[in-house]
What we know:
Bound molecules: guanosine-5'-diphosphate
Radius of gyration: 28 Å
EC number: 3.6.5.4
Order of helices and strands: HHHHEHEHEHEHEHEHEEHHHHHHHHH
Keywords: Cytoplasm, GTP-binding, Hydrolase, Nucleotide-binding, Ribonucleoprotein, RNA-binding, Signal recognition particle
Strand order of the largest sheet: 3-2-4-1-5-6-7-8
Pfam families: SRP54, SRP54_N, SRP_SPB
Domain SRP54-type proteins GTP-binding: 267-280
Largest sheet: 8 strands, mixed
Shape: globular
Mean pLDDT: 83
Subunit structure: Part of the signal recognition particle protein translocation system, which is composed of SRP and FtsY.
Structural class: alpha/beta
CATH architecture of the largest domain: 3-Layer(aba) Sandwich
Strand content: 5-15%
Number of domains: 3
Amino acid sequence: xxxxxxxxxxxxxxxxxxxxxxxxxxxxxxxxxxxxxxxxxxxxxxxxxxxxxxxxxxxxxxxxxxxxxxxxxxxxxxxxxxxxxxxxxxxxxxxxxxxxxxxxxxxxxxxxxxxxxxxxxxxxxxxxxxxxxxxxxxxxxxxxxxxxxxxxxxxxxxxxxxxxxxxxxxxxxxxxxxxxxxxxxxxxxxxxxxxxxxxxxxxxxxxxxxxxxxxxxxxxxxxxxxxxxxxxxxxxxxxxxxxxxxxxxxxxxxxxxxxxxxxxxxxxxxxxxxxxxxxxxxxxxxxxxxxxxxxxxxxxxxxxxxxxxxxxxxxxxxxxxxxxxxxxxxxxxxxxxxxxxxxxxxxxxxxxxxxxxxxxxxxxxxxxxxxxxxxxxxxxxxxxxxxxxxxxxxxxxxxxxxxxxxxxxxxxxxxxxxxxxxxxxxxxxxxxxxxxxxx
Length: 439
Ligand code: GDP
């Protein structure tokens, strides 16, 4: 899957590598080739256009890591953008606390729903859940038999019902899960060959009746350009939570996998690549992006360079804070850290005399949160340079945060005091250190 794209991209990069320095023309030529490679992989043309525009802009902005060659920097940017395109956020399936948890699968006929339902059940079973499969496709006569066969194969109970009403079957199936102590149900619904109103109405009716915890859309990775229309239609009708990309083992171009996230904003949660029950993998955007780019050695070089840069940035940051130059963003960060350590009250109570201070009401747990609301109403520039905060800016911030200007002024006073304290403390530490050094 996507091997052709992978080969094409690697060819483009090795062409760049032989050049050493890269001119704007080189970048433009490479971007044209990337555009063609993506289109040939059947990635949606709008998605390609945006992807290339973003990538090109970053390449031309000379946003570079010194430790990488110009060609490696281009690879890094393409890798970043590819990961972004596939969805940077965590896409794991998180089950809710309701028992049984209800997962509903939607998608076109032939997209691989029934197969995916069984694979998902198998996966959940491996994770010590007790799933139940519901055969909600009452139109394709063989669908329930197919699900039953798959269920028998993996040792998972299948509820078929005997009616023709998928809403009733879904309801009864959930009751069957309760009666048989199953903690997750997976509803396989009917699909049509093309998007049509009846299919959407039925999906909506099931959704309304059983209020699924998760709706996953099964999308055939080989759908090509049409993937946009299909997912948009489902998205509008049932607003699904994530995607299972099926048939990733196909030899075709597989561009659907690269388009779906950008088009729907919904994460790909699983990729299905084969007929066997265990061929459903959790989707990792970064791993997929790396797999598409191939070039394991270049990728690890890039990762190394990024790590070094992050470390340098962190050191600079620490140095800045040591010099007492804290910003309002640091203030918010300190607040978050404080919260992580159990909140102000807990920290204060651990100090000598802390309990007394707490008892006298000198410590206000909500104060830090109130500060954060005010800081969040500031622009980035204001947070970095608090001296910008004149009267009219303070009035605007107060309105945004829903507080009075006096609150803003008090907050700034506290901030300035903290800043002074940090400066004094670090100066003290430095003096001590230099005294020690002289000894
Ligand atoms: P449904 O109509 O959406 O329920 O689709 P099915 O689950 O019946 O799948 C349609 C066809 O695609 C069947 O022949 C499946 O065996 C096949 N199929 C489903 N998922 C995969 C997959 O990940 N890889 C491959 N190669 N075939 C698949």
